[in-house]
Amino acid sequence: MFTLVELKTATKNFRPESVIGEGGFGQVFKGWVDEKTLAPSRAGVGIPVAVKKSNPDSEQGLHEWQCEVRFLGKFHHPNLVKLLGYCWEENQFLLVYEYLPKGSLENHLFSKGAEALPWDTRLKIAIEAAQGLTFLHNSEKSVIYRDFKASNILLDSNFHAKLSDFGLAKNGPINGFSHVTTRVMGTQGYAAPEYMATGHLYVRSDVYGFGVVLLELLTGLRALDPNRPSAQQNLVEWAKPGLNQKKKVQKMMDPRLEQKYPLLAVTKTAELILRCLEADPKNRPPMDDVLRELEVVRTIRDQPQEERRKRSSGPDTNRVRGNDSPYGRRTGRTG
After folding, report:
1. pLDDT tens-digit map of 60-76
2. Of the listed 34, 57, 147, 225, which one is catalytic?
3. Start and end of every Protein kinase domain (predicted)?
4. Is 147 a catalytic residue?
5. Of 229, 199, 223, whose CA–CA distance to 211 is shortest?
6. What is residue 113's predicted lDDT score, i.e. its pLDDT?
């Protein structure tokens, strides 16, 4: 438990230059605390922390604060962000987490000028995020994360992935029920269709969101982007029909990967995405299976030199431009 005075000291009184993130709940500030005692310290002394300060006027902010304290206070896993403490004082709701210096996966995939993540790093992030989600699903109460998206996957200095923001997490169904019914609160583009349509939330509703993020890792494109041509604004709708066709998968790959990936690994990943995006949650694989399959994909190395030469001497199918490709509309990407 932190006091408000301590957190003001740690963040230089919540100065604007300390802000490292923002959302509907409020703002996230970078602060500094003593590594052993967690007492507030001067900038650059001790260890950095992330302090999430909820908007005091937001009823949803209070609800999400309670959710985070309840779930992150109870669960500990290498692929879940660590909650170091919290504060509830003067109508202010604050959470203190470990600081993850590489920021979110969203920033690395979509921010202008961001350095391209190589294939192996993308796969490692997917596997570690899958480990975090699998842990939640297999916990005693089958926790449903409910907001799996690229901005909620945070990265440490070695690109280890950790799930953050448990404000929408929910205990899964009990007594033989297949789903829980709840107010629709997820993020459009990532939320499963059955949940958006009915409010019925299944454990495998999370699997759909995982499939969307896996597709973003493959293509380097956002789940929803109003700046793309109308037929391509919804990534799932645009990409899904081609995910079982090797040539179409190659064409939709992120050009910043520069074809530096094992083609078999990519086609296997595309097949897995297709299963994660099944319309009926019963037909989606459980996260245990998804994780196992990704571990197998990680063992697939590049094809022999001769086969690679054949591929590179053919037409450059990976850099299609024009009306059938959304990449021509992107700017500020590094190659």
Report:
1. 777 788 888 888 888 89
2. 147
3. 14-297
4. yes
5. 223
6. 86
The first and second tokens of residue 121, run together, are 């790093």
pLDDT tens digits, one per residue of 81-108:
999 999 988 788 899 999 999 999 999 9
Average pLDDT, the chain: 88
Q: What is the DSSP letter of 178?
A: S
How many other β-carbons are positioned within 10 Å of the β-carbon of residue 35?
A: 10
**Residue intervals in the chain for CATH 1.10.510.10:** 105-329
**Alpha-carbon distance 281 to 194, whole Å?**
8
CATH number for the domain formed by residue range(s) 105-329: 1.10.510.10
pLDDT tens readout for residues 283-324: 999 999 999 999 999 999 875 444 455 555 555 444 444 446
∠ CA 279-130-173 to the nearest 5 degrees? 60
CATH class of the domain defined by 4-98: alpha beta
Indicate if the alpha-carbon torsion angle 262, 264, 266, 272 is positive or negative.
negative
Q: Which residue has the tokens 């190395």?
A: 301
Tokens 């050009």 sit at which residue? Answer: 255
Residue 134 in contact with residue 287, Cβ under 8 Å?
Answer: yes
